[in-house]
Structure formats: structure tokens, C-alpha cells
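# step 3/5: fold
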Amino acid sequence: MAHLPHAHPDHQEDHPGGHGHHGHGPGDIDWAVMAPLLEAQAELFTPLYGTVMAWLREKAPEPGLIVDAGSGPGVVSCLFAEAFPGARVVAVDSSDPLLARARARAARLGLADRLSTLTGELPGMLDELEYPADLLWAGNSLHHLGDQRAALAAFAERLAPGGTLALLEGGLPARFLARDIGIGRPGLQARIDVVQEDWFSRMRAELPGSVAETEDWPALLASAGLEPAGTRSFLLDLPAPVSDQARAYVAAELNRLREALEGGITAEDRATLDRLLDPDDEASVHRRSDLFVLKAYTVYTAVRAA
């Protein structure tokens, strides 16, 4: 589950309860409002992305063009530029404010000459690419598209012969707290997971042109005419005691969940979240010594025939 753009970091996770420009349903996410959280999570997850990119270097050692499809604020786009110094990177997203952040980040890191952006809806915007991609990365962005099978076929068409499509979908829910944290009913995060899964199903169902699809990603990649080339899961393991950066991320995530999922959780669990978010409470995530971050992402790869 990557249901909470976890930011690709990019749109690396989905965020229940986001309010878009066209309403307030599950699929309405205001990415500009989400940007700081997306960036903070992506930055925290940099060690995980480093291992992902080391693995991808084995599959696409010298790509000329890398496309980050659904790039969000460009944290991962810039990590690609750093990991593949001979490549040009194109960050593609529908949000102008997020791409502005991507360009600013690239400029700060001295990468502006190798990172460019394209604004528009996926997958159609990929037709604007000047050249086919040697490596196309879609990190928790595919599930924001109604017809995922059609989108994968469009991604495949934008690959150069021998090019690699890397798809980050699924994994395991993030964990920050033990099952029994000494306040409230044990199992808080597991119950939140159930509510998030319901939100995700509604979000998918409300997307334009939504098509229900069995999430067998290797089979779907093969149906797009690609040759599956390996699957691997990557772990972010930040044990207690966590850094101030991790503590701030957890507090922001739980605060967002408290606001977004209020109607789906019990009064007892809301009260527990309130205590967890109160900086003056010794049991809060701001003060707890047992806080940790544990998260797994799964990446599926496939290659276009040369």
C-alpha cells in the first residue's frame, strides 16, 4: 500500500482527504497544499531511493533520457539526476506549483542544465517528449489514472528500444508506533489502514474513466508488450530514537490522517490521535522515545524489446 504520495515524494504516496480544485471527493487532491509534506517525506525516504537507483543502474546503466512520470515536487527527479550523471531528466506532472518546486530544487543543486519539466496530464503529455525514454519511472502515479492498463501501454510506447519501465506500486503500510502504545486501544495504525484502504478504493472508483484492474503488475506490464525484468521491495528502516526530521514527518502524517479520516475512525481513536499530536502531552509523537519509521515500497521493472 502506498496510499498515503507516501510524495513521489514525487507523488510517492496518496493522501486521503486532500481537497482539489474541483470538489472534495476522495480523488480531489490539492498537490500544491500537499507539497511541503511530499517534499519532507521524499527527503526522509532518500536512503530508500538510493537503493532503488543502485538497483536500476544494473538494469539501465547509462540512460540518455530519464522520465519521471508523476514527479511531484521533483525530489526523486533530482535524485535520478544525481544517480545518473550522464542522463537528462524530464519531470512530468499536472501540477504547475509542484513543477516550479522541482525546477527550484534542481537550480539549488546545480542540476538545472539536466532537468526540465513538462506540465500536463498523464499519459498523454508523454507525447510531448522530444525523444523516447531510456528509463521511465512511475512512482505511485499510475494509480491516479483511471485506466491503468491503457496508461501502461502509453508508457511502453514512449520507451526507446531496450528501454526500462520502473513502476513503484504497493508495498506495505508505514508503521510509526508499536501495537500497544500505552494510550487508547491497541492496534491504532492497523485500524487506520482499513479506513485508508476504503478511501483508496473510493478514490480509484471516482477517477475519470476508472477501470477496475487486478493489481498483478508483472502481468499488466506484459500486456503492454513489455518483458518483465524483475521485482524488488525496498525498506526504509529508521529505528527509535528517530531524528527531528522523522518526528516532524510522523506528526504531519498523523495530523493529516486525523483531519482526513475523522468520519471513518472511532471517537476513542480520534482522542488517541489528539493526544499523539499534542506537543504538551508526554505520550505524543513529539516526545515519545519509542517512535520509529518503517516502510516498504515495491518496484516492478519491464523492458521494451530492442
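# step 4/5: annotate
The two ends are 33 Å apart (CA to CA).
# step 5/5: archive (pending)
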